[in-house]
UniProtKB/TrEMBL annotation:
Catalytic activity line of the entry: alpha-ribazole 5'-phosphate + adenosylcob(III)inamide-GDP = adenosylcob(III)alamin 5'-phosphate + GMP + H(+); alpha-ribazole + adenosylcob(III)inamide-GDP = adenosylcob(III)alamin + GMP + H(+)
InterPro entries: CobS
Keyword annotations of the record: Cell membrane, Cobalamin biosynthesis, Magnesium, Membrane, Transferase, Transmembrane, Transmembrane helix
Lineage, uppermost ranks: Bacteria, Pseudomonadati, Pseudomonadota, Alphaproteobacteria, Acetobacterales
Cofactor(s) the record lists: Mg(2+)
Keyword Cell membrane recorded: yes
Keyword Magnesium assigned: yes
Function: Joins adenosylcobinamide-GDP and alpha-ribazole to generate adenosylcobalamin (Ado-cobalamin). Also synthesizes adenosylcobalamin 5'-phosphate from adenosylcobinamide-GDP and alpha-ribazole 5'-phosphate.
One GO CC term on file: plasma membrane
Domain of life: Bacteria
Membrane topology: Multi-pass membrane protein
Full protein name: Adenosylcobinamide-GDP ribazoletransferase
Organism of origin: Acetobacter cerevisiae
Length: 267
């Protein structure tokens, strides 16, 4: 039996939201963010309430991965190996959460019915479609980062990661859950206050990162992210009847791929 959540100050609520977002999107330790009362409580963490910070966490992840790439380039590591190592660091930092969702959704697309697709996506084993999706996504991202100047790549990785996590807010707002449990259920109904705050912070983050970009490039990145979100959303609605955690992961990776590829056309 769980104990009720303790009464929280505004600062404690913010720290709990950050801990919730970081524990989902990264493998970083988060206990230090919690108050003693929060650490002692067995109440469920407020996953839906924490969505406001997801784009900010994404931007930080992208910036750190970009810094790894930049440092490797400073060490005269060739562009493509440096990009591959930076993406490997990202997978370690995030636990490959979104990549796992991409592989599961790709495998699920091979099912003949909605029920069978959802069943395949629950299977922890990876199939040929999942392997192809992972390989192609890593190829697109690594080659795109390698094609950019190091300082631009840092910016592109931060922007693409921020937009990829913003997409995680948009899809649950537009689609119903495909399952009655899991991440989909924890985000439904999506709290509107944190949703709008999260989208506003994503916009502010893009503007802040746009110091080295023109307005056209900023708007192009947002448009590409919306297109990626729309494509994955349409596929999820048609094939699954809604979104799952795997759909959100697939949308995040697909967004990163398209935004990074778009940067190569703009620079």
């Amino acid at each position: 039996m769980s104990t009720p959540a303790p009464a929280e100050s505004f600062g404690a609520r913010l720290r709990l939201d950050l801990a919730c977002g970081l524990s989902l999107l990264t493998r970083l330790p988060v206990g230090w963010l919690l108050s003693p009362a929060q650490r002692a409580s067995t109440a469920l963490w407020p996953m839906g309430r924490s969505i406001w910070c997801w784009p900010l966490i994404g931007a930080a992840i992208g910036a750190v991965v970009g810094a790894v790439f930049w440092l490797l380039r400073l060490g005269h590591v060739a562009a493509l190996p440096a990009a591959g190592l930076a993406l490997a660091f990202q997978c370690v930092l995030t636990g490959g959460l979104h990549e796992d969702g991409l592989a599961d959704m790709a495998d699920g697309c091979g099912g003949a019915t909605r029920e069978r697709r959802l069943e395949i996506m629950r299977d922890s084993r990876i199939g040929s479609y999942g392997v192809m999706a992972l390989g192609l996504s890593l190829l697109v991202r690594a080659s795109a980062v390698a094609a950019l100047p190091a300082e631009v790549a840092v910016l592109a990785l931060a922007v693409s990661a921020c937009l990829a996590r913003a997409v995680l807010l948009v899809l649950p707002a537009c689609l119903p859950p495909a399952r009655p449990d899991g991440l989909a259920r924890s985000l439904n109904p999506l709290p509107r206050g944190p949703l709008w705050v999260g989208l506003a912070l994503a916009g502010v983050s893009i503007v802040a990162l746009a110091g080295e970009m023109t307005v056209l490039i900023s708007l192009s990145a947002v448009a590409i992210a919306l297109a990626a979100c729309g494509l994955v959303g349409m596929a999820a609605r048609r094939l699954l009847g809604g979104y799952t955690g795997d759909v959100l992961g697939a949308a995040a990776v697909f967004t990163e791929c398209l935004v990074l590829a778009g940067f190569t056309a703009l620079f």
